[in-house]
Amino acid sequence: MNWINFIIFNAAAPLPELHQISDAGVGENLMQLTPTRDAELIACGRANTTLGGQLSASPVVGSQSVTPAILVHGVLRALQAQGCKIRLHCYQLGLEQLPDFSGSVLDEIVCHRCDIGEEASLIHQQLLPELARQAKAGEGHVIAECGVGGTTFATLWLRRWLDQSITLAGSTKDPEKLAIKEKILAQLGQEFAHFPCDVHQFLQNHQASDPVQRALSALLMTPCSDNTTLELKLAGGMMFVAPLLAIGADAIKHRLKISMTRWVLEGNDAQAVLSKLPSAYTVTPSTTDFGRSSYRALHLYEQGYVVEGCGLGGCLVLAEQCGLSQQQIMDSLDAAVKPWLE
């Protein structure tokens, strides 16, 4: 059996009122629990961490859709049915609580945690050696993220490096939340307007970057101890593309393949941003049609209410490349959400 390593960076952006700009979270003062609960959903098909002392195992979110995490669970189950073994690598970046993986159906789980500002050390000590091991063993991998509020910082960086007018599709279409987000972006842009286009300055300031950006940047800019060049398979949407552009091709030490949902590419500014990527980086969108689902909650993805998250695009592309048909994939996604929607 072939091992697939699903690697996820979990974090919350350094914004005090995250619940006001994101539909991805679980409410005021609880946003840091979202990545933890999503990791549980990926492994177990349900969330085990309580919200304010109350158990809410359901993946249904405010837009009446479902979190991408439960769909990642469905794709990984489809891959298991094809004979793959799945190992989850959970990186808790600055999050206080570790996930409760009781009831996991995956084959193996590895969990690491670091404090804010220690992301690079964790990547150097744990992830780089592990990726080198996987490469030597012939194992596959996908590197994903669950960074609540992360599109805000991806937008901040892209506006600084590319164009001040850039707006990225995030987790909400709510006009009020989008207006608050734009106000926050304007404040952040003004605060860091004096910074040069030097990625190191943004990474060193914990209010000018988020933990996912710092972790990915450390991974991309650090060679393996034996100077082996890795082929990294990134599945982080625009949250991963922004650091690529800020770092620049000359400073990246590894080969890259990027996969994402096709809905990311349909965003207003996505094509303009992706056109700035060096030609050596291939971007592969998923093709699976969520209109085939039995559930409106999945149809909402096709309508742009959710565009990416938790490496969903990368998992879909991997399943498609492994030969799973659209119907096989959708059957597994429907099975994953059925207990919560009926």
TrEMBL record:
SUPFAM superfamilies: Nicotinate mononucleotide:5,6-dimethylbenzimidazole phosphoribosyltransferase (CobT) (SSF52733). Gene3D superfamilies: 3.40.50.10210. InterPro entries: Nict_dMeBzImd_PRibTrfase_arc, Nict_dMeBzImd_PRibTrfase_sf. GO terms for molecular function: nicotinate-nucleotide-dimethylbenzimidazole phosphoribosyltransferase activity. This is Uncharacterized protein. It comes from Photobacterium lipolyticum.
